[in-house]
Structure formats: structure tokens, C-alpha cells
Amino acid sequence: MNYGRFAAVYDDLMEDIPYEQYVEWIAETMRSGSVLDLACGTGVLSELMAELGYEVTASDLSADMLTVAQKRFKESELDIPVLQLSMDNLEGLEGFDAVTIAIDSLNYLATEAQVTKTFDQVYAALKPGGYFFFDVHSVFKVDEIFMNSPFVYDGEDLAYMWHTEKGSSPHSVIHDLTFFVREGWMFERFEETHEQRTFSVESYKRWLAEAGFTVESVTADFTADAPSDESERIFFRAKK
């Protein structure tokens, strides 16, 4: 997928994500150390972690996302290495104190095999005692909330229409987005299609255990509370 135009508007779409709370969640467990930020997107979380003193390596499959991230790091005068790689292929990476896959990026993996391979790869990339932090959409959000589309946003320089439909796999969703981005006195239109899939909490816990992890906490919606039937975002902290 070409993320060129999407990368340019990504931060506007994610402006409601409380990245600071994500960093606080990590800091509750570890105050320093090396972190591999997988599927880093435009590098917002990587930047915040680096500013707090973590030794961050940022990675993403999209060269366009990494271009935006590198610009961010340069402007912030942060020395953050970037790698272009898939989260399920981390061959040669090792010795990290923590690995993050933030903001439902794991849900872009379409199959159980891809998820379990990713867990195996993350396990190998961590030091003994290292931590794995990630979040996913809940089954409830994918099956129920996302099906209440269309969703519409109308801003001064960006507008979009977001339609959803069920994907071909259980607990999957296809997002069809039409963007209108201001270019001078005109708006440029472009379209994106994304597909995400999630699995049950118990499935993720089982696959983590099979990879060798100890699951230390499962919480919901940026709180310390356990997930309920109507939680929307599930957070996992696992230890090697």
C-alpha cells in the first residue's frame, strides 16, 4: 500500500489519541532502557519516549511514514534510528529492554499465523526480563462500533468520510476513507482502504504464552481496569 498521502494527514487523524498516557503506561513499568517502537507511524510515540530518556529505535513498514518520522526527529533534535521492516520479520534485532506496537497497529496483521510469528519475533528481540507493550481493538469495537458508519469529520484544512463494512474474516473490518485536503484555495480528494482484524483477549493471551511470555496485565481503554464486554481498546503488558 502507498502511504504517501495518508502519511501526510495521519497526525490530523490521530489528534485525539492520548500518546502521553501511553508513555505513562510504559513508565509505570520501566523508567529507562532501550525500546523498539514497531509500526511507529509518523513517530509521535517514539519522540515522546526519547524526550523522557528512553533509547528509542523507530521502525515501520512504510517508507512514507518513516520520512515524516525522520523529519519530526530532526526538528526535535533527537537521535532516533529508523528501520524499514515488517513487525513479523525482526531477524537480527535483539537486546531490547522493551518492544511496543502501539495504537492498534497489530490489527493490520490479517492472520493468526502473522500474529503468532510477530510474538515470536518480539520475544527474540527482547532481553531476558524485557517487556512487550501493545494494544488492539476489542472484538466489540470491530464487530459493533465500527459498523455504525458512516463517520464524518469536517475541519478547516481536512475533511473525510469514513465508511466501514465487515471483512471476510471473523472480527475484521474494511475501512474505506475519502479525504479532502486543502491545497491553497482548493481541496484535493484522495481515497484509502484499510483492513484490520482482531481476536479475542484469550487468544492473544494464549499466543503470548506459547511464545514464552508471561502476561502481566490486560487492561482497557487507557485505564487500569480489566476489559469488559464493551471495552474498545485492550492493552497488554507481557514479560520475557
From TrEMBL:
<protein>
    <submittedName>
        <fullName>Class I SAM-dependent methyltransferase</fullName>
    </submittedName>
</protein>
<dbReference type="GO" id="GO:0008168">
    <property type="term" value="F:methyltransferase activity"/>
</dbReference>
<keyword id="KW-0489">Methyltransferase</keyword>
<dbReference type="InterPro" id="IPR029063">
    <property type="entry name" value="SAM-dependent_MTases_sf"/>
</dbReference>
<dbReference type="GO" id="GO:0032259">
    <property type="term" value="P:methylation"/>
</dbReference>
<dbReference type="InterPro" id="IPR041698">
    <property type="entry name" value="Methyltransf_25"/>
</dbReference>
<feature type="domain" description="Methyltransferase">
    <location>
        <begin position="35"/>
        <end position="130"/>
    </location>
</feature>
<dbReference type="Pfam" id="PF13649">
    <property type="entry name" value="Methyltransf_25"/>
</dbReference>
<keyword id="KW-0808">Transferase</keyword>
